[in-house]
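Per your request, structure below.
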């Protein structure tokens, strides 16, 4: 099979990857909503779906790489440019549009992942603060009052029995 014959398969695989990536982005948005709402069931569902989609994206990418390798190409800018030279104007426009869309969705997924990471980090920090308070420990950023009612900083432990 020559490269021109493989173009339809390559385009089809990129379209499939875009579809999967779009679903992945939506799942990541659902994950953020579940995190923000402290909904464990929705969060677990989103995580399961996200992993499934990531696996499917990786499989699709492998298929694209294998197809390109058969023709001595890889999925870098130089080889994609070489691939585009084998396309007619319609195929070139289609492939360029697909690659741009895939890049855009990948960027959105990356940014959504950063947002989700921040939500998780903030939740983790809040839980750590709550645990610290329940243990009677302070972090130096909050004031503790001594027996005379004066505000003091730097007391590292304060048992609930003394408060």
């Amino acid at each position: 099979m020559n490269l021109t014959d493989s173009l339809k398969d390559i385009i089809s695989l990129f379209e499939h990857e875009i579809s999967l990536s779009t679903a992945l982005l939506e799942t990541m948005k659902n994950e953020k909503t579940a995190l923000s709402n402290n909904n464990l069931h929705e969060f677990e569902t989103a995580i399961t779906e996200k992993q499934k989609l990531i696996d499917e994206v990786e499989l699709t990418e492998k298929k694209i790489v294998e197809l390109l390798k058969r023709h001595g190409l890889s999925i870098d800018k130089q080889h994609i440019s070489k691939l585009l030279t084998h396309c007619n104007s319609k195929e070139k426009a289609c492939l360029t549009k697909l690659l741009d869309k895939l890049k855009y969705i990948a960027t959105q997924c990356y940014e959504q992942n950063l947002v989700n990471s921040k939500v998780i980090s903030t939740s983790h920090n809040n839980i750590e603060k709550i645990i610290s308070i329940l243990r009677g420990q302070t972090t130096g950023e909050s004031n503790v009052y001594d027996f005379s009612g004066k505000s003091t900083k730097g007391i590292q432990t304060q048992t609930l029995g003394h408060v």
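The helical segments are 3-36, 40-69, 77-85, 89-134.

Regards,
D.
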